[in-house]
Fold this protein.
Amino acid sequence: MTIAIKVENLERVYGSGEQQVRALKKVSMQVMAGQFMAIKGRSGSGKTTLLNCLGGLDKPSAGSIEIFGSELTRLNDDQLTKWRREKVGFIFQSFGLLPTLSAYENVELMLRINGVPFRQRGERIEHCLGLVGLEKWATHRPYEMSGGQQQRLAIARAIVTKPQLILADEPTGELDTETAGIILELFQNIVANEKMTIFASTHDSLVDDYVDGVLQLHDGAIQVA
Ligand code: ADP
Ligand code: MG
């Protein structure tokens, strides 16, 4: 089996002196390829910090992060940006869609950023919009859609570049239970059919029924269940 995420003794310290916050404390963990894993923890436990480090959006103070064999702490900024664009899809609690672009254009933007030629985009975009059940919403803007639809669009956007890893930071945080369930089912479907690995943070116990495993974060440290 392939290891998707391997973290060892990860530390992230914000600030200095008396203001210092040790947001991650010797975090070590693994996620296997093809898994849908959740990290749970209260607000302030370090979930966002961990996901940002895993996705190369933030740099750890110490420790190592290997994603599908790439040691992120050895990449320079340009290499990290390139790696992130090609290998990672991000999903956020507040969706992060561009309001002036249609659903189709929001998804297309990621392919444009990655330099995918125009004629290769259409089929892939339609596949992804279909996968999240939004084929009929291609020309609509995000504000014309419900929260659940917007998050499904954000999922289509995250997967369109065929990343190996999807990082989702409280993806169901702004959704009601029923809609959250639809999103979590979609994640299961993506892991099963699109050959991606998903690592999602949450403080919702609903995820337990959908994931392959749960890690607990408490005050910046992984708790052994
Ligand atoms: P969670 O996502 O689980 O709510 P965070 O990773 O956002 O947790 O935060 C973990 C800890 O780090 C908290 O104590 C938070 O206040 C602190 N923190 C997060 N980001 C910063 C920052 N940019 N500067 C200083 N402290 C921060
Ligand atoms: Mg957070």
Observations:
- DSSP finds six helices and ten strands in the chain.
